[in-house]
What does this fold into?
Amino acid sequence: MQDTSEIRVFHDLKALEVVDEERPQEASSIKELLLFLVKIVSIITVLVLLFTFVLGATRYQESSMYPAIKDGDLVIFQRYTPESYLPQEVVALSVEGEIQIRRVVATAGDKVDITEDGLVINGAPQQEMGISQNTERYLEGVSLPLFVPEGQVFLLGDNRTESTDSRIYGCVEIESILGKVMMIIRKRGI
It folds into this structure.
């Protein structure tokens, strides 16, 4: 028959083995949790840097670019400003502290006019895809025809009857443009 002290020692040793087996699992769980938190912080840091220096985002709150961009859509734009833009590119700009989204219709050296035929660039009436309204002059605003100066662009909204654009505030300096629109995330109603 075994001595009870031997049984107690054996039982105590078994208990220590169980505790020792649990400690590596606890350490491993804590290590995994810390690694997960580091990953989350890294992702958030990259996103903050990306949207601070490379990309911009704005919730579109008007109807000037309807139907291409609708009220409530999220617009993502690239903050890189090239030396020039091409006609039909959509850009973000700040006018009186408000971000606007407009389409480039004329670049440096182009002659812009609005006649009874609509938008005329360099003497040629424009057939614009996605524009359903006639482009008309505003009573107030810039005098047309005009030549777009070097380093500037002429911008119009797609919703030509309701847009505040270069017909009102004139040509826009390329340096004042925030960037080119890259993506539109459509607001969906439920």
Q: What stands out?
A: The chain has two domains: 1-55, 60-185.
